[in-house]
Task: structure prediction
Amino acid sequence: MHMPPMATETAPEFKNSALRMNVVTKRFYDLLGVAGAIFGIGAYLYLLRSSGSITYLLKIAFMFVVMLAFLARKSAKASDTRAATVAVTSIHVVLPLFLTASGRTENPFLPAIIIAYAGLLVSALSLIDLYDYFSIFPAFRGVQTKGLYSLVRHPIYAGYNIFNFAWLASFPCVRNAAIAAVFLTFTLLRIRREEALLSKSSPDYTKYAAVVRYRLLPWVV
Result:
């Protein structure tokens, strides 16, 4: 199922933050995103060196895909860059960097590790599906409905939450439990802000949300 994006008037509450990007402005934001991805790669390289966990190698590969998505993505027709939205998004992005491989480091729970890797795979495949519609902060570039987006509306976030809770099961400690819980909370806050923009930017998104009813897990939430 694929619904082509429709050109609509941006809702009043998003007018001040709408981005009608020219080539120079788009490239600036793309390069800013690439810089953020490079920072993430550096952080995961540091964690890889200190822990030796293959998980961080997989996350580095994911960040390379993020860089490619920034370079390939379309110009945004509208975005939400209000201070509260930027704060919610930024906290949500950096939280996974603080997960630790402690609590059961000598004998990690193998089934949970496998589920964690499956979560990363879900996020990676979803990012590939999204690709040129990708953004960090809420932005409208079109409505993506194919692949994993035909099952849930936010499969990238679903994959990361699967990873976080599976990682907690493998490496149980207060720190990982707090991060997993706070990350899920900020996932729901981020989704609320993204969907407010998307539903007001195109009637196609409202139709899509009516068909794909679940945000993260089918028949759950």
Remarks:
- The chain has one domain: 12-211.
- The mean pLDDT is 81.
